[in-house]
Fold each of these.
Amino acid sequence: MNPLKITIDPITRLEGHGKIDIFLDESGNVKKTYFQVPELRGFEKFVEGRPAEEMPQITSRICGVCPTAHHLASTKALDDLYKVEPTLTARKIRELVNSTFFVEDHALHFFFLGGPDFIVGVDAPKGLRNIIGVLNKVGIEVGSEVIKIRKLLRELIALAGGKTIHPVFGLPGGVSKQITREMQEKFINGAENAVKFALFVLNCLRK
Amino acid sequence: MKKPKVAFYWCASCGGCEEAVVDLGEEILNVVDLVDIVFWPVALDFKVDDLVNLEEGEITTAFINGAIRTSEQHEIVKLLRRKSKFVIAYGSCSCFGGIPGLANLFSANEIVRRVYLETPSTINPENVIPGRGDKFDGSVVSLPKFYDKVKPLDQAIEVDYYLPGCPPPVKLTLEAIKTLLSDTLPERGSVLAPDVALCNECPRKETKPDKIELRAINRPHQVYIDAEKCLLAQGLLCLGIGTRAGCGAACINGNMPCTGCMGPPGNVKDQGAKLISALASIVSSNDEEEIKRILEQIPDPTGTFYKYFLPYSILQGKIKREIENESLENYD
Amino acid sequence: MYDFEPKIVAFFCNWCTYTAADLAGLSRLQYSPCVRVIRLMCSGRIDPQFILEAFSKGADGVLIGGCHPGDCHYQEGNYKALRRYILLKKILKDFGIEEERLRLEWISASEGDKVQKVVNEMVEIIKKLGPVKPEKIIQLEEQTDKMEI
């Protein structure tokens, strides 16, 4: 093992594959660093020949953490392709799902992915730099709130979009599924809880 | 009593299967109590070296998702196979190849050229293509090999169980975990999902006519999709007829047709071929010209019927003929 | 022109085409030995999986023989075969298998001469196209690195 080389393989707590090789000089300063991305799937090529309306469901597979974002971006591209303006209702439904996704995705990042670096600290032992370490620090009460709110919001995404991971509802000029009065109430409830959760977390961090 | 060890790894994957595990919600706290997760790049900081240092068979179960596309993924799944008692192909990509499997319709060269040189938003004036490596300070820093074709997991290592889905439904994952921690293990090689077609589970099955007569095939944006009726009866290509149940008909509940992510039911070797067969049986015409006209309404049969299954199909993808001789060497 | 003996798998329906092939034999109408005939009760029994399996195992061409429209012993079987054939041809093209390698013909029991004509024609066409030679399943270790410069 070369003492003047540090290898981080794989990089963790993100979506994707990566490897870092750091070369040091005798005084321990960085001489050269290589950031390597050892993965390639080729979406840019294999979507060629597929029907346009399948793009929202195919491109969502670029990422399973933010499939909703890819799905909606593709759907907007379809609007542009067919030169149609989505109806006001459709726009609102899309924005509703997007906002719901926003909150649960940020909660994921804050607690599971990036959070451990800030809450537990980069110098903590390897075994604690993760969600479990975070929960140990902030307490099980916060932990269970995080899990509850993400579950609530992710179920809402599935309610309007079919599936949480890789939703299906985007169509050129609209969406595939109506929002009923019942669904609307669930979303309102979800939104209220999301705001409460955000304030709760802010409060905890202030302490 | 030491807790059984569990590992998760992703190959050519999107991370959705990881999210599916996190979606066990409160259940995950119970799971974490029962097992010791020793490797999970999306959530934990354990490195490949930590895996190398484990004993053979020390990991009780490894959940591997994603298809095999690079030599690094191949090496790590081989490593995990050595260190694990059971390996589960988790998700459609590792079971069948998944959506990344559509890349098997193109050559590796075509993909690399498109990604690094030809895409409209790429600025690469010197036509740089990721190379095999660099030598620095006596070390070689290298990227893994990019294989010719996408392979599902069981074409690289022995797989004990399969749990398909894109991603696998939470319910099935929970059941799988409970089963695997129990004393009665299912037959090795089995698929941990019900062995019936999706129609059985579909909330609209009462509206499915006994004899479906397809006179026209519609693309989802061409018609107003009735939220109560069988989608196939509405002329939409709902592949539930040739797809395994277990997902609770999630896409149908989103008012869109099934695209086949759970793979075929047990007795089918090639999902795409069977779907063609089933569809052909219900097209309602005996006139050659009319049949052609109806079937022409399917813009992309290969992509539609093999969306998740291409590498696992009988032909596995575009056949390479000797005539092909593409090389990136001449590119300047 | 490739110098090889093509392997063609022929799925013939029992009632019409297979009988015609027998008739061709009886009438001493010579047709190419490159064809391996498989008898099925109906062209509608042909599962597309059979055709793909044939190509994957080394067939250079697949011929389907069924009853003329309207004459199917089981009423609709040959129409199902026709619909499957139309879809399969499109898919085979995407898999790199030329359209001419899959052929569907309606051949009635009395058309022994048509069997001879169709088979011999197909063999000539496939000889010009060359073998399909599905790539042998390359062991993962052997795969070449396409990213080498």
Amino acid sequence: MSEFGDFCLLLALVLAVYGLVASLLGAVWKQHRIVRSAEHAALAACASITLATASMLYLLITSDFSVSHVAIATNRDLPVFYKIAALWGAHDGSMLLWVFVTSIFSGVVIYQNRFRYRDLMPYVVAVLMLNLVFFLSLNLFLSNPFNQLVEVSANGAMQKYIPADGRGLNPLLQYWAMVIHPPILYLGFIGFVVPFAFATAALITRQRGDSWIRTTRRWTLLTWLFLGAGLILGAKWAYVVLGWGGYWGWDPVENSSLMPWLIGTAFLHSVVIQERKGMLKVWNMILVLMTYLLGVFGTFITRSGVVNSVHAFADSSLGKYFLLYMAIVAAGSLYLIMGRLPYLKSERSLDSVLSRESAFLFNNLILVVACFAVFWGTMFPVLSEWLRGSKITVGPPFFNSVNIPIGLFLLFLAGVGPLFAWRKTSIESLKRAFFWPGILAAISCAALLVAGMRNSYAVVCLALCVFVAVTILEEFIKGAGMRVKNMGENFAVAVARLTLKNKRRYGGYIVHFGVVLLFVGLTGNAFNREVSQMMAEGDELRIGDYTLKLTGYKEVDTPNYIYGVTTLDAYKNGKFLRTMKPEKRLYKAGEQQTTTEVSLYSTPKEDLYTVFNGISSDGRQYEIKAHVNPLVFWVWFGAAVMVFGTLVILLPDRKGAFTTPQISLGRSVYFEESMKV
Amino acid sequence: MNGSRLKFVLGGVVIVGALVWLGFVGYQESKAYYVTVEEFSAMQGELYGKTVKVAGDIVEGSIDRSRTPMEFVISTRGKSLRVRYVGTDVIPDTFKDGSQAVVEGSVTPDGVFQARHVEAKCASKYEAEYEQRGK
């Protein structure tokens, strides 16, 4: 089976190289049949990679330990569910998953557009295949998951080596969010290759319009959704599995998935300007290039071991190939953009600083600065070593001191954006628009100060959250109110119809509302508390309103691991709440890794988070750590609302539906025609 | 350049300038030299009193949890460093004999490194073993 998988990968590489060359030749020679054959080869390459992935899954499920990846990432007693997840449990297999996801994306794009965009498609295919060839070559030649284990026998001959059992899946990865986190994140990393491919094709074929943006709008949004969902699942995993009480630590691997998300977010906003105003054409090209490269860069950071990270895969020799590939792609794209500048002229210039365009521009500027700061902080050890010869690292204070103000400013923009009119906003209309949001934000600010909150960032953040939430509600009330008046619908129906008629605009507001909730959750970080205590049976630990009483400890044996569990009775203000059972597990396979199983009581107000940290050397005391983390619930809930809003925007249009003119805030009346997805 | 464009650029410069300043403050607050145990022992004089991150492998059997605060020894290439963990964070599960650890803190007059923060990465010795056996 491993030979079969290996062969499938090799076959796919040959087909992908053919697809790359043939699509370019077909385009240059204007031979439709050659382009067709290139597309067929590309689809066949995808099928071949699918077979390779299937054979790896077969090897994993049947525990064929002659294959190195299977021996490294699984053991016999591992549940089947985790044997499947072990596909991405170690470096080589996760590269295969990466290649598989890339090929699926490429295949879907090629199939979807087999009768459309015939002028663009040859180049789109070429870019997709270039991307595939790169990752496939790495997978095949440098990190092949189908490699077999061999050992050198006494007389110097090589022979097959089959260990009795595998090393086992890293126990830290044995958690549901971690099982789905890598594939989802990969979808987000890779998906930006599609808008990038269309952008490149548009440049090569000298397209003037923004058809590449319209074509790939759904892809961009879907990819952005996956990337965001991947980020939040990773955060959830860190919170529940790593046991240090937080969900985001500015770790290089976290940062490397945040960076493409930031630029992707900037891109999603700035394409609106290009579609409506014909501005920022060069900028959008650069953003889509950056987003794609940052996806590749994220993989590079994770794979190359260039930056020290807690959960980076072990050092591998892939680094220099990644750098070379990124340099070639960047140079090629910049050359193309420079050569096509006449086609990318802005059709208009900025009319006023108090305009929606300007809000979008500031949003872009800030997101790019945020990404740059994260990049700088992440790569600082490497950069400082190049420049000064000594490695210097920067910690969370650096990231927080830059990104907290950035986050607040973005929140502010999300609030004022809809209040500004396109082109120019009159002071009169601004006064009207700012009235309620401003007043309510000021009231909540005062209320927080009176209630004794003294953390200035937290007060500003919560007041801004109120401000933005009110502007969003006003938008819905205004739009729906108009429908109630004109069409006699009841309010709920009007809100639903309004949203569905202008999915992009009102779906966008829903996403923004999710962002508001997320920020409420993030604010809670300013008020986290923690207590650590050695406890014997009967001892009590106090934290905030809570009291934890240790009532028992036992050890239990399961096939996969042994665990010790402490029983804590939790009381709130003296009233019994529930029993909490934080565990410590010792996994039997491989390196006898321990894991911490947090016991969590989550409410919208705050989380009570308990960790069992170990036993004292005399065996009579248990180290318990408790955290009270306010508002964490809203991080997950806000993220869910963001996902929901994005799904609303992604809803397919009804056949034959046409959109009606809408009246926007401010004075300008515009047609929502261009809002159609 | 028209007026509003100029205003936008000025606004942008002010914002970016403020962020750069904030970044610089944050950098000053959290920068730490990152060295291996071997490099650390070679440049100890220079790094005295500064916040440093030191990377090394945890010496087998050196983790002494009977003391509070706990102590252990990390080493690279024959040089070793005694570390006392004085932080409050939970010690990660990956922290055990033979793991690669990164400790953050500073050295004290008695020569023991006071670590406020410990990170650990699984030693990939099994992987290395397999790789040697692999082709």
